Amino acid sequence: MSTSPASQVFHRDLVHSAPAVSHASGVHVWDADGNEYLDASSGGNIVISIGYGVQDVLDAMAEQAAKVSFCGQFTSEPQEQLARELADFAPDGMDYVRFTSGGSEANETAIKLARHYFVESGKPSKHKIVGRWRSYHGNTLGALSATGHVMRRTGYAPILLPFAHAAPPYRYRCTFCAQSNACTLSCADDVERVILNEGPEHVAAFIAEPVVGAAAMGMVPPDGYFERVREICDKYDVLMIVDEVLSGMGRTGRNFAIEHFGVVPDLITCGKGISSGYSPLGAVIARNEIYDAVANGSGMFEHGFTYGGNPLSCAVGLAVLRHIEKHDLVARAGDVGSYLLAEVRRAIGDHPLVGEVSGLGMLVGVEIVADRATKEPFPYEAGVSKRIARACQERGVLINPSFSGNADGYRGDRFGICPPYVFERHHVDQTVAALAAAVDQVAAELASRVPTTTKESQ
Description:
Layout: E1 21-25, E2 28-31, E3 36-39, H1 42-46, H2 55-67, H3 77-89, E4 96-100, H4 103-120, E5 128-132, H5 141-146, H6 150-153, E6 164-166, H7 186-198, E7 203-208, H8 225-235, E8 239-244, E9 267-270, E10 282-286, H9 288-295, H10 311-326, H11 329-348, E11 354-360, E12 363-368, H12 384-394, E13 397-398, E14 400-401, E15 413-417, H13 425-447, H14 454-457
Parallel strand pairs: 3-13, 5-6, 5-7, 7-8, 8-9
Antiparallel strand pairs: 1-2, 2-3, 4-10, 9-10, 11-12, 12-15, 14-15
C-alpha cells in the first residue's frame, strides 16, 4: 500500500519542500514556523512592488468583489479606468491597452498582435518573431519560443516554434567585444543580421527585455543599444516589443525601463508589479498606429483569455497604480535602488566569487564566477547562486536565486537582489550585510570542497 505524500500539490520542485508562508506585512514575510524574513526578492518572483498588506488595495479589492468579480459579456469601469491611467503612465503615443492574467499571456498577446497588425496592414507575409539569447519571456509555448534561455527551452525544444534569436547585449561575456576595451554595438547589429537572414519581408517583430530579469539577472544594455535596434526595426518595418513584465511599472526608477534608453517601442508588455501580487494581472500597451490598423481594418483581434480584464484584477491594478503615483514610488525605487547597487558593489564587488554587479533601480544582479581573471563559471551541479540564497535566508533575508546558464547556456550563476519599491536604506543595509556574510560562507564551503549533489543544486 502506498502512503499519501505530505503535499498533493504538483509543485515545480518535487525534491525540496518549500516552507509554508503564514503572513506578510510591509516588506516582511513570516513562515508557518514563525520565522521572520526581510523580503529583498519581491515575493521570490519579483512581483511585489508596493509591499504587503496595503490597506488601500485591500479596500479596493473588497469593494469590487462585493459589486462584481467577473462578467465576461461586459466591460467594466475598473477595466476602462485602468486602461486610461496606464496609458497616461506609458510613453506618449501608446494609448491602448489589452489586459491579461499575467506576463506570459501578455507576451503571447503581443506576439499575436504583431502578426495581426501586418495582416491588417496588407503585409501577411510578415509573421516571424526574433528574440535574443539570455532572455526569458514566459512558459507558454509562444513566449517560450521567443525565450533565449537554453535550460528552460531544452525539454520542450521539439514543440517550440522556430523563432530566431540574436546575440544579447551582455558586455561582461560579449563575444563580439571580448578583445576590445570599448563596446562596438555589434550585439545590436546582430539583430539586423538575423532579420536579413530570416528575410525582412517575413519578420513581424523583435522582442527584448530592456533590463534582463530571470535569464541573466540585471543585464543592462550598453549606451546606444536600443537606439540602434529602433533604427534597425524601423528600417525593415519590424515592430519592437519590449518585455517589461519584470522591469516595468517603476522598478528601475522610470515608469518603464525602456525610458532610460530614449526610444519608444511599438508594444510594451507588463505584469508582476502592475498588481503587486494582489491579483493576477498583465497587460499589453500598444502604439496608436497598431490600434488604428485594426480599428480601420477588420475591427477584430480574435484573441483573449478567460480572466483577461476581469473587474476584480483591474480594480486591484488601478489601486496599485494610484498608490505608486500617490507615494512617488518610481522615484523612490530609483533613489534607493542606486544606493542598493552602490552598496552591493562596495560590499562584494571585489570578492573572489563575484564577476559582475549590474542593474538599475530595484533590479540588481550579481554574477558568480570560479575565477575572476578568466570569468570561468562554476559547474552547474555546484548550484552556487542557490547556496548563496539559502545562506541569506538562514540570516533572515530573501534574495532571488536565478537560473544558471549565463555563460554557455548551462553554466554561469547569477542571482538578484530585487526588493519592493518601499524598501528603505536601513533595509538595504540589512540585506547587504546578510549577503556579504552569505557569499563569504559559500566561498569557504567551496574552498573546503563541501560536497554538493545535482539534486541539491536543482
